[in-house]
Amino acid sequence: MNAKLEDNTKYLVGHRTFALGLAFVILFANLLVYGMTYRVLASGRYQYEMRAAVTSQNVAKLLEQNTSNIIEKIDVALYVVADELGRHVASGRLKANRLERYLRGALHTVPELGRLCITGKGIDKAYHCDAINGTLVRATIGGEFLDLRDPSVRGLIITAPISSKASEKWTIQILRRYNSPGGSYAGVVGVVMDLNNFSTYFSLVNVGEKGHIALLDGSQGVIARYPEFSDEERQSSRRGEFMQVFQRTLQKNPYKGTYLAHAGGATTLVSYQKVWNWPLFVQVGLSEEEYLADWHDEVKLGVLLAVVFTLLTFVIGYLAHRHCMVRRKVLDMLAQRESLYRSFAEMSNDWFWEQDENLIFTKMSGDLLDTYCAAPEQFVGKTRWEVAVDVPEDKMVPHKALVMAHQPFKDFEYSFYNLQGEKRTISVSGIPVFDDQGRFSGYRGTGKDVTERRLYEESIQRMAQYDSLTGLPNRVLFNNRIEMAMSLSRRDGHKFALLYFDLDKFKPVNDNYGHDAGDNLLQQVAQRVSLELRDADTVARLGGDEFAILQMGVTRREDTEEVASRIIATLSAPFAVAGVEEEVRIGVSIGIALFPEDANSRQRLLKVADTAMYEAKKVRNCYRMYTSSEHLGAHKNGERT
């Protein structure tokens, strides 16, 4: 009887120890799962926030570049108009009929001017010229015109938004004064821009239903916004916590930045970018509610899975605590679940793989043949780097080091050729396997086909950086390459040249033969120019019939002049345009600037090259080297004119 009592006591002690140990294990497992869930969700939120920040910064930068290009083009045009008016004032030949003809010609040359205004001494009334019908009518001189009488004012003045009583539209004015021969105030030339144009342009960018895009002036006043303010919102747009945070951020980072703003119970991630040297800012806001929508779904799913795990552990503990037979039932249940999971795995498009201690594939499971036309024999008996193709060295070397160190890895992508010779891209994840003595015995992992996703990402990237008509780099990619070239030049001391050109007599081709013929001509121009350049050089289409070339490794001005001469020669040869029976002949006007001799920044380099090109267009079918002297060097067909 004592022996039986002793056995019962041992059973009770063992049962209590088992129960306490089981409770501790359950508690520890739940704390670990909840901790991991929190960490994964926190990391996911950070990634969503960083992705939203990068997106808003990229959109703000792109809009800043486009806005800067528009204003810069208007600035150059106003400068030319002001210069022309100054010469007319100096000669005493400023007549109404001549003024009318000149304004119409300016609008025809630069349609971005929209509504062109002019007033000043010697003009008996103020004019504005509408780009739509070219009619000159009377215009009102606003307070901003009077500001330009101050001799300390230089360059452009961009006014605050003004509501027109006649059209009930909000506009801004971009103004520049012109002087008499003695340097005193002679008058004002300017442009009136409808803010609806900015709102329409901003509406093309998707920032979500609760996001916004805005153009602000130097005092943080809203010039244009999408979606537009109501009248009440417009009056209060300078107040509130939203603008206070922007002003504080602007004091620390006056050119660009990103911050979070809280207003009306909502949080908005805002990125801003200063528009070059003008007192303007482009602001892009993304609603936190929208860019974290997917993350909130992940939170719900993570909490649900954690709760399910907690309930499952308590059920398993309860069953284990009840009796050993119950544990057996639990094991049977786990075996059934394993069978169920295996069935799910077999029905999935993913596959499972195993490697031995030498990292050689020993097993591939999954429907590779029917789904991807691949066979396990293509992998078994080989290492991953014997199968993989098109993997950059900077990715394969770290991956080899990781697996040699017997570390887990996730989402390593590489390509292989299937049985039909098609290149497929797969993403694999794996964990190391160790035996009972802790010795490394290989890897196990999963793989999935990501070919379509990779192709989609590559197409999106190409669309963002290359011109869809000619296949040449676009303005964004070309600007990036200029920045890279400047960095290399500052580091190594090498020079490079920027050749900025557009086509002469291209508009008659469009007008006479249609846009299809014009597009075909642009494609042939791109092909001819590309053949005249080295692999290290870059030719880009900046828009319309404007192109630019980045010529690297320039040691002498003659190197660039030789390239310009070849381009003039090849583009002067007749073209056989599709759909046009006769030969088509055009010309090209090229402006050339050297770095760092002519400019020390990308914006300045583009501007001086553009200035040189406009000088070349006065002669046509020639090139001009930029110089700060009064006379530019012009060459036509490789010979000085």
Description:
The chain has 641 residues and is an alpha+beta fold. It is 47% helix and 25% strand. The strands form four sheets. Strands 1, 2, 3, 4, 5, 6 and 7 form a seven-stranded antiparallel β-sheet that branches. Strands 19-20-18-21-22-23-24 form a seven-stranded mixed β-sheet, with helices on both faces. A five-stranded antiparallel β-sheet has the order 9-8-12-11-10, with helices on both faces. The longest helix is centred in the N-terminal third of the chain and has 90 residues, at 2-91. It is globular and about 115 Å long.
List the helices and strands and how they pair.
Layout: H1 2-91, H2 96-109, E1 115-120, E2 127-130, E3 136-138, H3 143-147, E4 157-158, E5 162-163, E6 170-179, E7 185-194, H4 195-203, E8 212-217, E9 222-226, H5 231-235, H6 240-252, E10 256-263, E11 266-274, E12 280-287, H7 288-291, H8 293-322, H9 324-347, E13 351-355, E14 361-365, H10 368-372, H11 384-387, H12 393-404, E15 409-417, E16 423-434, E17 440-449, H13 451-465, H14 475-492, E18 495-504, H15 507-513, H16 515-531, E19 538-543, E20 546-554, H17 557-572, E21 587-595, H18 602-617, E22 622-625, E23 633-636, E24 639-640
Parallel strand pairs: 21-22
Antiparallel strand pairs: 1-2, 1-7, 2-3, 4-6, 5-6, 6-7, 8-9, 8-12, 10-11, 11-12, 13-14, 13-17, 15-16, 16-17, 18-20, 18-21, 19-20, 22-23, 23-24
Helix pairs in contact: 1-8, 8-9, 15-16
